[in-house]
Specification:
Layout (H helix, E strand, L loop, with lengths): L3 E7 L3 E7 L5 E8 L11 E2 L1 H19 L6 E8 L5 E4 L9 E2 L7 H8 L2 H10 L8 H11 L3 H7 L2 E4 L1 H9 L9 E3 H4 L5 E2 L4 E2 L1 H7 L8 E3 L8 E2 L11 E7 H8 L8 E5 L3 E8 L10 E6 L7 E8 L3 H11 L5 H8 L9 E3 L17 E3 L7 H27 L5 E5 L6 H11 L2 E5 L4 H14 L14 E5 L5 H18 L6
Helix pairs in contact: 4-5, 9-14, 10-12, 11-12, 12-13
GO molecular function: kinase activity
EC number: 2.7.1.30
Pathway: Polyol metabolism; glycerol degradation via glycerol kinase pathway; sn-glycerol 3-phosphate from glycerol: step 1/1
């Protein structure tokens, strides 16, 4: 029997391949960044061909580096940046346009128009999502309306849509030579086109966005014992490996954190932040600005749902300090710089570069640094950036408690920013709860591997995965309640200053 399971984690800034053993231990990894294309303010694109080339490269490199062959892998799972939209020609394999990234705001007028009439309520009711630039439906509509030849190709059946999981699955299984066109329920739930109850594409929603049904991939379970397909013998793995799982990155992190029971929650710190609460088989509709989404579906079992608070800019705000402002050399420098000051010195940074996501859903907001005086230094700005990550997470946690009645006692955390000890201490202080990081912090890839392994019997049951979860570090709150509330009041005042900046 094969000894390992592999996972491709196709993220917003990079693509990695990780290989895990039966104990959930990382055996190998390789990672490559891809270009961030920003042709206009608010526009964010990726080159889908570059993403596929990076995926092939990381698969080949990680296998060669460990001297592995396809027979050593029981299965391959995929996890991916969600909502990012690719439309390609099924006959040539060429994209009609760059991938429009989830952060992109060019569809703000489409979203605003939908929110002004009954169509917005229909989308909320059926898809569990507010009309927003974040999701795929408006991005597909924009491509069909603005890219020459795209609408005509879609009408004749030559254009395919997919989030990056579908794009990779299609290429891994043959592309123009019989590649499978599939997605899973978690990614489909982020399009504004799927009915959350039926788990199928919905004709009324398709009509709203003008999307032909035959563009869309088949919706399958997240962990599929029947496989989506197998890798090709002449592909990057050099042999046939079952492609048995796909999940959006935040749902994969829920599986990787083993948040498989109702009431369990995690927060992933990446380009953005994503706090999810497992609500079990109950579909909980938010009244406080959160999203209702599919958490996962294993085989023929009923789907498990989640409430989600999506935050657009957290880790990418640290990247902005490095790339645009030049006040840090790397992500780790943000911690050492911020440690030079005991607090933010009255300075707040609201990184609303793509508007504000949960719980505000304000595409008219833009970033602001407020409360500055001559006293403030670059260290205060670095500290305010870390605090912004944590205050945005509190916004979501408070909304989640109102919707669910579940009060957080421990917050499981994962993702790259969790390597920043100061940021995690601030998070514990801002929330007033214990923060716990697992040994394997890259839980998106681990979750995809778990789902793939469950499908082929590499792991027997979901409960077996709990034995693999181990804590690496925890942080306890140190602020007084007065400090906590005073800081949060300042944050809410800062958020107010960002609103109504862009006319939509």
């Amino acid at each position: 029997m094969a000894d390992y399971v592999a996972a491709v984690d196709q993220g917003t800034t990079s693509t990695r391949c990780m290989i895990f053993d039966h104990g959930g231990n990382e055996i190998a990894r390789h990672q490559l960044e891809h270009q961030q294309i920003m042709p206009r303010p608010g526009w964010v694109e990726h080159n889908p061909v570059e993403i596929w080339e990076r995926t092939s490269a990381v698969l080949q490199t990680v296998m060669n580096g460990k001297g592995l062959c396809a027979a050593d892998l029981a299965a391959l799972g995929i996890t991916n940046q969600r909502e990012t939209t690719v439309v390609w020609n099924k006959r040539t394999g060429r994209p009609f346009y760059n991938a429009i990234v989830w952060q992109d705001t060019r569809t703000d007028k489409i979203a605003a128009a939908l929110d002004k009439d009954e169509r917005g309520q229909l989308i909320r009711k059926k898809a569990g999502l507010p009309p927003a630039t974040y999701f795929s439906g408006g991005k597909i509509q924009w491509i069909l309306e603005n890219v020459p030849g795209a609408r005509e190709a879609a009408e004749r059946g030559d254009a395919l849509f997919g989030t990056t999981d579908s794009w990779l699955l299609w290429n891994l299984t043959g592309g123009v030579d019989g590649g499978v066109h599939v997605t899973d329920v978690t990614n489909a739930s982020r399009t504004m086109l799927m009915d959350l109850e039926t788990l199928q594409w919905d004709d009324e929603l398709l009509e709203i966005f003008g999307v032909p049904r035959h563009m869309l991939p088949e919706i399958r379970p997240s962990s599929d014992p029947g496989f989506y397909g197998k890798t090709l013998a002449h592909g990057p793995l050099g042999g046939e490996v079952p492609l048995s799982a796909a999940l959006g990155d935040q749902q994969a992190a829920m599986v990787g954190q083993v948040c498989l029971r109702a009431g369990e929650a995690k927060n992933t710190y990446g380009t953005g932040n994503f706090l999810l609460l497992n609500t079990g088989e109950e579909l909980v509709r938010s009244e406080n600005g959160l999203l209702t989404t599919v958490c996962y579906q294993f085989g023929d079992a009923k789907p498990v749902y989640a409430l989600e608070g999506s935050i657009a800019v957290t880790g990418s705000a640290v990247q902005w300090l490095r790339d645009q402002l030049g006040i840090i050399q790397g992500a780790s420098h943000s911690e050492s710089l911020a440690r030079q000051v005991p607090d933010n010195g009255g300075c707040y940074f609201v990184p609303a570069f793509s508007g504000l996501f949960a719980p505000y859903w304000r595409s008219d907001a833009r970033g602001a640094i407020v409360g500055l005086s001559r006293y403030n230094t670059n260290a205060h700005i670095a500290r305010a950036t870390l605090e912004a990550i944590c205050y945005q997470s509190r916004d979501v946690a408070d909304a989640m408690e109102k919707d669910s009645g579940v009060k957080l006692e421990v917050l499981k955390v994962d993702g790259g920013v969790t390597a920043n000890d100061l940021c995690m201490q601030i998070q514990a202080d801002v929330l007033g709860v214990t923060v716990s990081r697992p040994v394997v912090a890259e839980t998106t890839a681990l979750g995809a591997a778990y789902a793939a392994g469950l499908a082929v019997g590499f792991w027997g049951t979901p409960e077996e995965l709990r034995q693999n979860w181990n804590e690496s570090k925890r942080w306890e709150p140190s602020w007084t309640e007065e400090q906590r509330e005073e800081g949060y009041r300042g944050w809410r005042k800062a958020v107010e200053r960002t609103l109504d900046w862009v006319e939509v």
